[in-house]
């Protein structure tokens, strides 16, 4: 919605097969978010709508998809040792949480 009017809408069969309604809703919300960001950037570049700096509202009625979409801070994200360097104490705590153990010497 922009200034009270819909700027984009879509109803179609998903290209990807989902194993659950949560996954299907998450895929749909992700696709909608990408399009919303593109539209916002496009309209911002046109410079005709001053209120475009407001956050994008995305509505989803599936609690599982909403929970899956929430950002997990690095301090709480136990998979970070698999994707980025961390301080040893934090890495050791996360790897213990994952059940990863070092090989004995």
TrEMBL record:
<feature type="compositionally biased region" description="Polar residues">
    <location>
        <begin position="9"/>
        <end position="20"/>
    </location>
</feature>
<feature type="region of interest" description="Disordered">
    <location>
        <begin position="1"/>
        <end position="20"/>
    </location>
</feature>
<feature type="region of interest" description="Disordered">
    <location>
        <begin position="83"/>
        <end position="105"/>
    </location>
</feature>
<protein>
    <recommendedName>
        <fullName>Retrotransposon protein, putative, Ty1-copia subclass</fullName>
    </recommendedName>
</protein>
């Amino acid at each position: 919605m922009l200034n009270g009017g819909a700027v984009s809408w879509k109803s179609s069969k998903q290209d990807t097969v989902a194993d659950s309604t949560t996954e299907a809703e998450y895929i749909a919300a992700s696709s909608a978010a990408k399009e919303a960001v593109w539209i916002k950037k496009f309209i911002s570049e046109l410079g005709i709508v001053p209120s475009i700096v407001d956050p994008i509202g995305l509505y989803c009625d599936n609690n599982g998809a909403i929970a899956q979409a929430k950002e997990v801070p690095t301090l709480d994200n136990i998979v970070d040792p698999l994707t980025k360097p961390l301080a040893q104490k934090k890495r050791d705590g996360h790897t213990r949480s994952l059940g990863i153990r070092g090989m004995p010497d």
